[in-house]
Amino acid sequence: MSHQSLSLILFVTFVAVTLGITVWASRQTKTAADFYSAGRRITGWQNGVAISGDYMSAASFLGIAGLISLFGYDGFLYSVGWLVAYLTVLILVAELLRNSGKYTMADVLAYRMRQRPVRSAAALSTVGVSIVYLIAQMVGAGALVKLLLGLEGDAAAILAIAGVGVLMIVYVTFGGMIGTTWVQIVKAVLLMAGTLLLSFLVLAKFGFSMNKMFADAATASGKGDAFLAPGLRFTSTIELVSLGLALVLGTAGLPHILIRFYTVPTAHAARRSVIWAIGIIGSFYILTTFLGFGAAALVGHAAITKADKAGNMAGPLLAQTIGGGEGSFGGDLFLAFIAAVAFATILAVVAGLTITASSSFAHDFYANVMRRGQERDEQAEVRVARITALVIGAIAIVLASFARGQNVAFLVGLAFAVAASANLPTILFSLYWKRFNTTGAVVGILVGLFGSLLMVALGPNVMGPKGLFLKGSDPLFPLENPGIYSIPLGFLAAWLGTMLSREPASEEMYEELRVRALTGLGAEEAEVAPTRASATRPSG
Amino acid sequence: MANDPREPSRSPTTGRLPAEEVAAAEVVGKDPEMVELEHRHQRFVWPITVFFLVYYLSLPILAGVSPDGMGTKVFGQFTVGYLFALSQFLMAFVVAWVYARWAAKRMDPLAADLRERLLKQQIKEKEAAE
Predict the structure, then answer these.
(1) What is the extent of the structural domain holding A228?
(2) Which position has the higher pLDDT, A14 or B107?
(3) Residue A249 belongs to a domain with what CATH number?
(4) Does residue A122 register a pLDDT over 70?
(5) Which residues of chain B have a CB within 8 Å of the CB of A111?
(6) How far apart are CA B19 and CA B25, in angstroms?
(7) Which residue of B has its CA nearest to A81?
(8) Residue A532 covered by a domain
(9) Does residue A145 lie within any of the structural domains?
């Protein structure tokens, strides 16, 4: 049996299992609280595993391994930044957010502000960040399917992207948050198991000597000792710090991670879930050492760039080599397994992102802005969320076709920069600054969002000789990742907007917010699980 | 504006109107236990945030400023840069552990106490109003 058919069988099996879980979960979805936040019945460790599942995307599994395999040490900087980022979430955001919000990131931002403008801005930035993040996942999926099916050319990648899009819509429309949570958990376990196994086998190849692995990787890379030092991917300190800031501050502004804290019953459970996530994610990122340096030593630069020029296929190729090489049964089997894990990873992250963006649009924009003052129609809200999922999926598919050929970790790094610039200033000011007000929140979000997107659009990866457009001219913005400029810009805009106006109502409500955030008084409580008898599906 | 358009989710425990919550919160905000809770929170979270950000950002800064220094081998093929990167993982685990311990010891009991007291007070007020 060829590796194509093997991988297809494994992949189809996994999809069948996850869809089964989703269908099961869909029967549990009855109210809006169920759809958005799983009835707040998810436990701390379950949520921790689900956060890890949401977080360890194609960027972590495919992207980082690829960057390390091509550039050595510099790729590992992504692993470090993406873990340390969880301290920002744990210490400054998670528990206070759990206590002061309900369904979406905007709940916290709008707590003491005027609802309409803040919710509109927050819905816009949630959709914006999610789409940038989705593009990266779609690019990873495209590369993977091309490798799996041994297809050449653009048509295959576009087909793969469209396929992921359809699956994602099925997940989100039927499963809602409970389904997505379980998909994340299943995927996180598979991903950790696959990575541990692969890392163990890599180490075994080198006689359990990391020293030998590093030495062989350095030799095979052709770069020698430079492969084990910084400088092959990033040469400018500004660029390094810019990326570092985006990574470490971005997570606390990622809507799809933040809404996970609404699925747990208490702030204490929110804390526990971040601790779990730090343990799982930290272990995973340490293992990227073996994936990346292992691929550099065993697969080699030429084979990695032949499959995908940005290195995204280093991990799956490593599995094939470890299993016995191309054409061997072991190699095909292991490639199929790791590819199925990677695919599951992408599907799960795509589902998490899509449900976040669609929830935000339905809850923040449709229910609280468009239908404001009217009686709440939860069924219509869920319907709008499902339609939004379709539209967002379509936009991401189209944009991803332009971003093909970029490294997935790099692309997700951009989503982090946008999240840190647009969302983090407003989240922190809402929770910690009494004087903060509606003007500040709206100006901060809009300037951070469009400022960071503009810097990416004018940067070296979109315009100029290395970019997509205007290859003849130099990029107008010098950095690949805009974090060092766009994040302070977001904070500055939020501060300036605040100082331009006074809003006594917001200041008066600050005390209430703090009491609620710190003690949990009046916070949303867990729903009592509906019994079969009482759980009647509301009609129309 | 006659009708202020903010409508924070109404407290499920007290069912009070937002305006009443604000008035109550003003009083609670000056409650000695709340003041102490705020004090402890602010005094802990900002210094530890500054610590981990400085520790973390020194990695990209050193990588940019001194790639050769980071490439120096400490033992075998292990470079200063790789060991420093690994130390970041250790730092994250330790800081998370310290935070969790601090929150459990210094915040949770006080917050639970205050919450219980305020809840009783609110229920009493609600009964009196009825």
Answers:
(1) 3-373+381-519
(2) B107
(3) 1.20.1730.10
(4) yes
(5) 8
(6) 10
(7) B56
(8) no
(9) yes
CB A338 within 8 A of CB A316: yes
CB contact under 8 A, A229 and B57: no
**Residues 6 or more apart in contact with residue B58 via CB below 8 angstroms:** none
Asked if A48 contacts A276 with a C-beta cutoff of 8 angstroms, the reply is yes
Is residue A531 a part of any domain in this protein? no
Residue A57 binned pLDDT confidence (cut-offs 50, 70, 90): confident
Task: Please give the pLDDT value at position B18.
Answer: 55
Total domains in the fold of chain A: 1
- Which tokens sit at A366? 């449709």
Please compute the mean of the pLDDT values over residues A441-446 and round it to a whole number: 96
Task: Tell me: pLDDT of A214 over 90.
Answer: yes
CB of A519 within 8 Å of any CB in chain B?
A: yes
Whether the predicted pLDDT of A539 surpasses 60 = no
Contact A508 B22 (CB under 8 A): yes
Distances (CA, A) of A427 to A97, A128, A251, B78, B114: 9, 16, 12, 40, 25
Name the region of A80 (left: φ>0; alpha: ψ -120 to 50; beta: rest): alpha
Q: Is A175 exposed, middle or buried, given 0-12, 13-18 or 19+ CB atoms closer than 10 A? A: buried
pTM for the model? 0.87
Whether B60 and A244 lie within 8 Å, measured CB to CB? yes
Q: Is residue A101 classed as helix, strand or coil in its secondary structure?
A: coil
Q: Are strands B73-75 and B78-79 parallel, antiparallel or unpaired?
A: antiparallel
Q: At what angle do helices A154-205 and A210-221 cross, to 10 degrees?
A: 140
pLDDT tier for residue B10 given thresholds of 50, 70 and 90: low
- What value does the mean pLDDT of chain A take? 84
Question: How many alpha carbons fall within 13 Å on the CB side of residue A313?
Answer: 26
Nearest CA in chain B to A275: B96
Which ipTM did the prediction report?
Answer: 0.88
Q: Does A196 touch chain B (CB under 8 A)?
A: no
CA distance B57 to chain A (A): 7
Residue B19 burial (CB < 10 Å; 0-12/13-18/19+)? exposed
For residue A96, tell me if it sits in a domain.
yes
In tens, the pLDDT along A353-375 reads 888 888 888 888 887 777 777 77
